Amino acid sequence: MSTARHTAPRADLHTHTALCKHASGAPEEYLAAAQKAGLAFWGVSDHFPAPAGYDAAFRMAPDDLPRYFGILDSLRDIADASSLTVLAAAEFDYVPGRMDEVFAELDPLRPKFDYLIGSVHYVGDFAFDDPDKVDEWPRYGVDAVWDGYLTNLENFVKLGGFNVMAHSDLPKKFGFRHSKPETVLRRMTDIYAYAAAKGICLELNTAGLRVTANEIYPAAELLRAAFRAGMRITLGSDAHKPEHIAFAFDEAAELARSVGWTAHTAFVRGEPVELPL
Ligand code: ZN
Ligand code: FE
Ligand code: FE
Ligand code: ZN
């Protein structure tokens, strides 16, 4: 006798396109993967342009934005007749001291986006999650990178302007761990409280399973803190290839349920839509 139950409709809110220069695959291939995975919502959230001189090699240029919105429009047209809803989003970075420039570019475009993802990928001038810069971690100092990351994340959350907090313990990517995990837990607990008060969702990002860390972002003890803080969650594969779409979502959903969540969130024109886990 079959014990299979109806698979719940899911949303993958964190995926990329080749416009960021470090993802591969045609938009139509991602769409086919999203349909094959049976997603109800697929959010395209490529790396938003940043101020001049910041990380230009790993994100869209301002000149790419018309093409990006064109891709999103055509994907929505193609998916229109199906059960899949394509959502327009972007992942934008916290750039200390230059957020006025970021928001000057981003704010006029907000009506075009269903939601926005906020990320911290730098501490000072160190792109700590860049695989080509792994060897530089000792020079910057593991605890110093973590401490700087948490400060940036805290300041970003206090500033707000986004719906989803991406991969919130990203510095673990290559296996570098803070010497005092209790410090990370304490500071992140405060950050989650600020985020919950602003209605910012916590992302369960399965890309962590594809790197040295070999665990979902964020770790289980942080998930428990976020749940206690009252955060809602999103699921994100952080796909940089079509085959990453909805990567390990059964595992992510099981982890979320084990912590206490019963639903995950999608955003349609800024409005949260709750989906069962
Ligand atoms: Zn990326
Ligand atoms: Fe990211
Ligand atoms: Fe991403
Ligand atoms: Zn990401």
What does this structure look like?
By secondary structure, this protein is an alpha/beta fold. It has eight helices and nine strands. It has one domain (11-276): Metal-dependent hydrolases (TIM Barrel), CATH 3.20.20.140. The longest helix is centred in the middle third of the chain and has 18 residues, at 142-159. It is globular. Mean pLDDT is 96; it is low at 1-6. One fe (iii) ion is lined by residues 14, 16, 91, 238.
Low-confidence stretches: 1-6
Could you report the average pLDDT, rounded to the nearest whole number? 96
Kindly report the name of the CATH homologous superfamily: Metal-dependent hydrolases
Q: What helical percentage do the residues reach?
A: 25-40%
Secondary-structure map:
Layout: E1 11-12, H1 27-36, E2 41-47, H2 65-79, E3 85-93, H3 99-106, E4 115-119, H4 137-140, H5 142-159, E5 164-165, H6 181-198, E6 201-205, H7 220-229, E7 233-236, H8 249-259, E8 263-268, E9 271-276
Parallel strand pairs: 1-2, 2-3, 3-4, 4-5, 5-6, 6-7
Antiparallel strand pairs: 8-9
The structure holds zinc ion (ZN) (2 copies) and fe (iii) ion (2 copies).
